[in-house]
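Quick entry, no commentary yet.
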Amino acid sequence: MSREPTLDELIGAGATGAEREQLQKAHELLLQAGAPPELPPQLLKPPGVEVARRQRRRVVKRRTLALLAAGYGVANLRNGQSKPTAAAVLALKGTALEPRARASLVLWHPYDGNWPMTLNVVGLSKLPPQTYYEVYLVRDGRILGSCGSFRVSGPHALTVKLTAPYALRRGDTWVVTRQGPGTKEPGETVLEPVST
């Protein structure tokens, strides 16, 4: 029986302090979840194109749900709460520019007209200097305004705190774009809502 690797074996001694504590909690949650199931024998032979599309959609939904659950778990552990208090959660998927990227955007209850948000993202590429990711509020298919920006150092998981300083409405959604020098806002969309 093989043992699970420790956090030190996976990331080395690079992370310290609060970042290390967050990574340790996430690592423990992943260990509790266990290994994914083995590949079923019926998948050893490639399925037809339509069957593959349906299976791909199911896999994307499962991964998104797992990412959302992990986001809730980490947020609740960090806040010391036993029940989530989020107003809404939006699952985001990567576009053709970042097909492996996934995210969950947790929208918390408003405070003084500001809607705090937590973006849990994984799979985005490291960008060149002076280039960054921007989170935009979308209403009726149009960009309404920015909710914040961030950078990543690679495709690993990242949690970012953002704010929507707007009066939100039912049907509002968000996208993540790639911005850089000379790029017109809102830039190229790299994460968009998962359609149900």
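second:
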Amino acid sequence: MLASLLLALMLAVGGGAGVATAFAAQDPREVEGRALFAKGEYEAAVDLYAKLFAEKGDPIYLRNIGRCNQKLRRPDRAIDAFREYLRRARKLKASEREEIEGFIHEMEELRAQQAADAERERERAAAAGASGEGDHPPAAASEKETAAATTPRSQADTQPSDTGPPPGPLRRIPAMPSPEVEENSRRGEAPGPHQTGRFFFALAVGTGFGTANGVGEVNPMHRVGQSGFAPAQLGHAAPEIGVFILPHLLVSAQLRLQYVTYANGEHVANAGCFNNYCEPEPLSQAYFGRAAWLFGDGAVHALAGVIVGAGNIRHAIVFNADTMCGTNGRTQCVDTFASGPFLFGPSLGMLVELGNVFNLVLALNTQFGLPKETLNIDVNGGIAIRL
């Protein structure tokens, strides 16, 4: 039954991959717009993005129009487009808003520079007219300078803080996109400083503690009503595999492999054990499905989710009044109590990105067990990769 549960969960996780892929559809005119921008044909790109905005009403096209006018050194038009984009766009990241405000500041500086240049030209023309110098109308020089001021310069001259051409809807596509950014664009995800891989693999180790009740697994005469917290000796490993069906939503399957130490055996008559000496099972396993949400867009994420599964969690309980355990029959008894097999509870944790693929994971998982009642708390730590 446990294998069937795990297989069903993995099929459900695999099915989520098709949902994310469905977002990859794209208007071919968006590709044409980015191509025009990359070739420096900003006027044509402005016309195309204006038509797309009129048809779809997506504010991202206003950003694109602003970027084109920024390249054309038209500060007034660029500022208007950027400010309208900030007004209409919803749920902008702080880094995105800061970038747009930086563009507006650059255009305000350019507008002031162009006004100062025009004023100097008028003063020069007035001085030349008063002294009778020059055979040509001053307007010719002014037009020449104005044309130079409005002619697109190279990227190095015009945008020292350039971050690439405008994105299509829900994307940011640089002029010379890297393979990573191209892959993000095909998936419809917005590339950023954080990881964007869809597949998740983790291996964590930890220990746990919790309450236990019922009868002992070695000696049925060992009974516990509702004890205090007892350790889930000694520790466990928790491999996990999952997929991000949304950029911040992880659905995964997790295996909990527990190794029980500290418990000992006991001579129990008519218990069906070899030579009537019964020993506790050292291994315990449980299978979980987990859904977790990642909070934050930086390198450090908080995680919150739920886990549901089946299996057993064992706790070791010391019986001070029974000293007839061990092979010599003179050792204090430590029996095990299994909980479950139905397990569920909340899951909290933290994920710290270590570059583009590797992560450090910390987790605090709580499991409630039924019908053999338990409240168990696991503390795990390990590494993960996101591809």
